[in-house]
Amino acid sequence: MTSLARIPCTIVTGFLGAGKTTLIRHVLANANGRRLAVIVNEFGDVGIDGEILKGCGDAACPEENIVELANGCLCCTVADEFVPALDVILAKEPKVEHIVIETSGLALPKPLVQAFHWPSIKNRVTVDGVVAVVDGAALAAGRVADDMAALAAQRSADDALDHDDPVEEVFEDQIACADLVVLNKCDLLDQGGLEKAQAAVTGALPRAVKVVKVAGGKVDAPALLGLNIGTEADIENRKTHHDDELDHDHDDFESFIVPLPEIENPDALSRLVSSTAEAAGVLRIKGFAAVRDKPMRLLVQAVGPRVTTQYDRAWTPSEQRGTQLVVIGLKGLDRDKIVRMLNG
User: Fold this and answer.
1) Is the pTM of this model over 0.85?
2) What's the pLDDT tens digit per position in 37-63?
3) Prior bond to 94 cis, omega within 30?
4) Three-state DSSP state, 288
5) Which of 90, 134, 151, 176 is the most exposed place for a label (fewest CB within 10 A)?
6) How far apart are CA 41 and CA 29, in angstroms?
7) Pairing between strand 284-290 and 296-303?
8) Spatial distance between the Cα atoms of 266 and 311, rounded to a whole number of angstroms
9) What is the DSSP code string of 294-315?
10) For residue 311, what are the β-bridge partners?
């Protein structure tokens, strides 16, 4: 790569809980020596996804090559957040060979891709491709995220609400910009479910785009890095719901942190998280837990009532052991109820 070559950037988009971070972690662990950097944009008050990636410990992407933006949606804060992050990464030695950008689950990829035309960055980076990760199990059930039926029923029963579903619009806008779609969580589907999920993706795609079916976000790095699309050159042809808007917001969503003490039993915590998400209409719960007498940190991720846990790394001496869970959902969540339920 010459000094004048533009650094390729892969933008990974997808709805809350689709498996973006898991996919990126797999790519980092299988980079085959290619020098990578990651920009992770977290919606909420704590950069949980950035912490997950930093726990990967892969030499291809050392911790200092992971830059977290935790102050809002990347598509809304390109000037304030994205450009300075790029400056930091592009100044590193040895030079980074590829940048992976994980957007928040609420982000629209089109404004971010358009930013690659900005004079300050257009000669330094290019969009290698936009990868949309989708939740196959949810799509097979007719949803873009898990357990949306109760929320949809509540919305439709209230004549004071706008019945246009913002979640569906976010999903469709992400799909509209994709150069590759990763249909994730296929291990949770039988053949009929897989066909339904595939049909849902195909129906949302405005043009021919390759769809790969995976479980656990396990896509080979060469399949994601090296698409060589140059998406910014074609982005105006990718029509979305927000094309006529000067800006947008995410007032339909909210997030907050629930701190908890050390836990005794990971299975009991999983049951609490699952029942809380189901009873309170939560889209996503994710975070870390300290398990008594265990040196390893427990990673907790829930999409609706589906909960997965794993020990991701050891607690460091400088960290205060404890549990922090980020709760994400549509506006109007009953915070007091959720806090009570998670405290058992």
Assistant:
1) no
2) 888 876 544 444 555 555 554 555 456
3) yes
4) strand
5) 90
6) 20
7) antiparallel
8) 10
9) -SEEEEEEEETTEEEEEEEEEP
10) 298
